[in-house]
């Protein structure tokens, strides 16, 4: 690969359901965050290839009482980001609550509190459009069958231009059941171009589907359709669902995801052009590209969302998210470096999948080594802390206080169908109450655990194959927990979190 080209994926981790917008010379991307907090990540780029995480638009999930415990496949689904009237707007669907929006004058906020635009079950994947020609505003959304009994349809509304309300009951404007061979039509993005209303929407499912384009002279239809991106003979399965963006120089590009199992939905960039018949052509004649000429934009230094963290003053970087709305005192600030997590008492101490106070970030999509230093100060028997790989199944390695007061190195796991953990490696004494923990995540997200308690790095247990959640890739997690009881159970301190390529 030369300096004039880029290689897909451009974001090699689980940035699910991406959408993108250009404002001046800057590009901004957001993605699904489901039940993690803070939500609605905000990424920035000047060249569409190198991206950095600059913040989040959603501080807490609402209704707050619904997210006091992990709900990994709920919350923020498939957002759309737009810039209108000198403000950024993000719309998303919560499949159990309805369609929300937030807005802000600056990308780093402050963002408004979530406004429920349309209440209802199964309302997902909303996208607004402000028509500069007429001054009218519209909204399109899809449906989740699991909540509504409806799927494969796109519903359109007129919207008040201030984005606070819808002006009608809505109408099905595209019915996928009427298109031969189409199923699971969802994720619509709404645009105006060349005198047409355009809906760019995927179908066929996240692992095997394709990207469709629909156009009509009127918003409510009728729409013609065409498949504009599909796997063909490439290795990129299910290439679809994303956003179209045009550079200031007039180049068109399409950002989309590819489902990669435990790695989640990684992000690709496709060239886009308009054919003589007026329809868009994505990738190389409708097939996704692996390597391509870079966009004609000013050069940008290589960049990627941060992963490493020294936790200065006890603060954690913006790459970290809790598995539910955070509680008071989970992480405490102090004068030194290191993440100090309270050993929160819980009836679910044996299962980190159920803990809301796990601090997570995405599993890298390339073979990587993950390391962190841990000191356990929890004095309660059963108090524990560690480094985890979380999905439907989980594995973790860390420290636990025994009934005799000693601190032991432990390594545990649970299959997807299990409700309690089991030992994956033999416990051993950690004399100083400290350990260096390491996970080598190799090809296929196969993870090897190891540790150092002062006498060198040692392997622990068999290989653990990371698994995704229902809609989410596997997560790396740091946690501290103690059994149910009364009183303070102590804390754990994590330092020098590092992820490096293997």
From TrEMBL:
GO terms for molecular function: hydrolase activity, hydrolyzing O-glycosyl compounds. Residues 309-499 form the Beta-xylosidase C-terminal Concanavalin A-like domain. SUPFAM superfamilies: Arabinanase/levansucrase/invertase, Concanavalin A-like lectins/glucanases. One of its GO terms (biological process) is carbohydrate metabolic process. InterPro entries: ConA-like_dom_sf (IPR013320), GH43_C2 (IPR041542), Glyco_hydro_43 (IPR006710), Glyco_hydro_beta-prop_sf (IPR023296), Glycosyl_Hydrlase_43 (IPR051795). Pfam families: GH43_C2, Glyco_hydro_43. Keywords: Glycosidase, Hydrolase. It comes from the Bacteria. The keyword Repeat does not apply. Belongs to the glycosyl hydrolase 43 family. PANTHER family: BETA-XYLOSIDASE, BETA-XYLOSIDASE-RELATED. This is Glycoside hydrolase. It comes from Streptomyces cellostaticus. The lineage of its organism: Bacteria, Bacillati, Actinomycetota, Actinomycetes, Kitasatosporales.
């Amino acid at each position: 690969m030369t300096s004039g080209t880029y290689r897909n994926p451009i974001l090699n981790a689980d940035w699910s359901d991406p959408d993108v917008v250009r404002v001046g010379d800057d590009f901004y991307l957001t993605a699904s965050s489901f039940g993690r907090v803070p939500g609605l990540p905000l990424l920035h780029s000047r060249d569409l290839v190198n991206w950095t995480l600059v913040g989040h638009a959603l501080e807490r999930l609402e209704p707050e009482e619904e997210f006091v415990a992990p709900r990994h496949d709920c919350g923020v689904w498939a957002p759309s980001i737009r810039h209108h009237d000198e403000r950024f707007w993000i719309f998303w669907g919560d499949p159990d609550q309805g369609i929300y929006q937030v807005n802000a004058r600056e990308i780093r906020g402050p963002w408004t509190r979530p406004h429920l635009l349309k209440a209802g079950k199964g309302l997902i994947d909303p996208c607004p459009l402000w028509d500069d020609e007429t001054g009218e505003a519209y909204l399109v959304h899809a449906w989740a069958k699991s909540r509504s009994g409806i799927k494969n349809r796109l519903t359109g509304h007129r919207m008040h231009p201030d984005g606070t309300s819808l002006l009608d009951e809505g109408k099905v404007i595209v019915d996928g059941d009427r298109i031969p061979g189409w199923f699971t039509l969802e994720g619509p993005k709404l645009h105006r171009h060349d005198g047409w209303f355009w809906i760019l929407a995927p179908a066929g499912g996240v692992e095997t589907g394709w990207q469709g384009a629909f156009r009509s002279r009127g918003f409510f239809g009728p729409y013609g359709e065409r498949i504009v991106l599909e796997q063909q003979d490439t290795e990129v399965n299910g290439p679809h669902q994303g956003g179209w963006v045009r550079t200031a120089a007039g180049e068109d590009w399409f950002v989309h995801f590819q489902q990669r199992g435990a790695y989640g939905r990684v992000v690709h960039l496709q060239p886009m052009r308009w054919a003589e018949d007026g329809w868009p052509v994505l990738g190389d004649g409708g097939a996704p590209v692996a390597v391509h000429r870079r966009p004609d934009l000013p050069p940008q230094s290589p960049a990627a969302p941060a992963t490493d963290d020294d936790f200065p003053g006890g603060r954690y970087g913006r790459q970290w998210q809790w598995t539910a709305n955070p509680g008071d005192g989970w992480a405490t600030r102090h004068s030194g470096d290191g993440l100090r997590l309270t050993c929160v008492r819980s009836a679910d101490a044996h299962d980190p999948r159920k803990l809301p106070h796990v601090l997570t970030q995405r599993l890298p999509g390339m073979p990587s080594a993950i390391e962190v230093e841990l000191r356990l100060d929890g004095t309660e028997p059963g108090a524990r802390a560690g480094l985890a790989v979380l999905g439907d199944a989980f594995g973790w390695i860390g420290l636990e206080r025994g009934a005799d007061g000693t601190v032991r190195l432990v390594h545990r796991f649970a299959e997807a169908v299990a409700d309690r953990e089991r030992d994956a490696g033999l416990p051993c004494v950690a004399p100083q109450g400290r350990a260096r923990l390491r996970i080598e995540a190799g090809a296929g997200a196969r993870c090897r655990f190891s540790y150092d308690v002062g006498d060198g790095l040692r392997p622990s247990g068999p290989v653990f194959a990371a698994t995704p959640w229902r809609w989410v890739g596997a997560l790396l997690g740091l946690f501290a927990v103690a059994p149910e009881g009364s009183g303070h159970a102590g804390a754990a301190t994590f330092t020098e979190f590092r992820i490096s390529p293997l």
